[in-house]
Amino acid sequence: MMSLSGLTNVTGEADPTNCTYNGSVGTDMFDVSRLLYPGVIKAVPTPEMVFKIVFYVAVIVVALGGNLLVIYVVWRNKRLHNTTYFYIVNLAVSDLMVTFFCTWVHLVNDLTEGWVLGVFFCKVNSFSQGSCSWSWRGE
User: Fold this and answer.
1) Which of 1, 55, 75, 99 suits 89 as a labelling partner, its CA being 20 to 30 A distant?
2) Handedness of CA 121, 118, 120, 129 (dihedral sign)
3) How far apart are CA 104 and CA 4, in angstroms?
4) What are the strands, taking DSSP E only, across 20-124?
């Protein structure tokens, strides 16, 4: 049974049917650990988990290496300082942003049940993914 500290009826007794909030909240009032999960909890097999981690790490390393190489080559070669190559650098920077902000989040989301990164990071992740998707369009 959930604690009813802070919820009282007009006579001051704990009553969940006719209650008013008096300002104090018990620590277990918002405890949802006893609630049943509405779906089936996903259990990722170990071989699948290892494969996904190795694959995502390889994608992240290749994306970092390739995009940093593109940026470095355009930066060092003065002949490539024109609109076309600046656009290519913009695409490389955008791809780096996707790599930093989105790729590992998809891995964590793939390997766990539900969102485990917290409310703040949910908002930051949504913002960063939206920013990354708009940055490559140049809009």
Assistant:
1) 55
2) positive
3) 41
4) 20-21
Residue 132 neighbours by CB distance under 10 Å: 19
Q: Give the tokens for residue 135.
A: 């940055």
pLDDT at position 13 over 80: no
What is the helix, strand, coil percentage profile of the chain, to 5? 60, 5, 40
The label of the residue with tokens 């996904």 reads 52
Q: What would the two tokens of residue 23 be?
A: 């300002």
**Quick one: pLDDT at residue 33?**
61
Task: Let me know how long the chain is.
Answer: 139
DSSP structural state of residue 113? S
Q: Could you identify the residue written with the tokens 């704990």?
A: 14
Pair 67, 95: CB distance under 8 Å: yes
CA distances from 75 to 4, 29, 69, 90 (A): 64, 58, 10, 12
pTM, rounded to two decimals: 0.62
